[in-house]
Amino acid sequence: MSALLELHGCSVFFGGLRAVSALDLSVGQGDLLGLIGPNGAGKTTVFNAITGVCRLDAGRILFRGSRIDRLPTHRIARLGIVRTFQNIRLFPQLSVLDNVRAARHEHADYPLWWALTRIPAFAQAEQERTEEALEALAFFSIAHLADKRAGALAYADQRRVEMARALAMRPVLLLLDEPTAGMNPVESAEIMDRIRRAREERGLSVLLIEHDMRVVMGTCPRIAVLDHGEKIAEGPPEQVRQDPRVIEAYLGEEVPV
Question: Looking at domain 1-80+173-185+207-257, what is its CATH homologous superfamily?
Answer without folding.
Answer: P-loop containing nucleotide triphosphate hydrolases (3.40.50.300)
